[in-house]
Amino acid sequence: MEKLGINLGLLISQFINFALLAALLYLLLYKPVLRMLAERKARIAAGMADADAARAAAARAQQEYDRKIAEAQRRAQEIIAQAAQAGEQVGAEIKAEAQREAELIRQRAREEAAQERAHILAEVQSQIASLSMAAVERILGQEVDEATQRRLISQFIAALGETQS
After folding, report:
1. Neighbour count for residue 149 (Cβ, 10 Å)
2. Structural domain includes residue 116
């Protein structure tokens, strides 16, 4: 091989050096680089899984938020309806109370008017009795029994009241 310009000892030592260098590079660089690439691949996969989980959690949170908003709107509508109903009920109660009070006032006014009328009639009867007793005494020129006079006047007023009714 010498004729070809190849030195066999140098070639073998070059092969041995190359093999040693390849083994050293394999052990010192290739395995750590492969391990680092595998770790990076695992981190990327974990990151993707975390992103998917976060996306799913965000979707669940959005659904929960939408559900809570819908529930809050429903509750608000219920509260508004209850308040309107309570307002109507209070209004009806106030109106009923006002009507009761008005009727009570009318009843009192009727009673007071009846009492006033009875009082006025009693007063008028008393004045008529006094005037008629005075007139009879004047006409007769003597005193008349007061009990008899009052009985006659009461009969007269009762008869007068019956004719007016």
Report:
1. 17
2. yes
∠ CA 25-26-28, rounded to 5°: 60
Query: Where are the alpha helices (H) located in the chain, listed in sequence order?
Result: 8-25, 31-140, 146-164
Q: Is a pLDDT exceeding 70 seen at residue 36?
A: yes
- Which residue range is the domain that position 139 belongs to? 27-164
How far CA 151 is from CA of 36, 78, 98, 145, 154, in Å, comes to 136, 76, 48, 10, 5
Task: Please report whether residue 83 resides in a domain.
Answer: yes
Specify if 66 maps to a domain. yes
**Can you tell me whether residue 5 is helix, strand or coil?**
coil
| Cβ neighbour number for residue 125 with a 10 Å cutoff | 18
Residue 161's pLDDT band (boundaries 50, 70, 90)?
low
How many domains are contained in the chain? 1
Predicted model pTM: 0.41
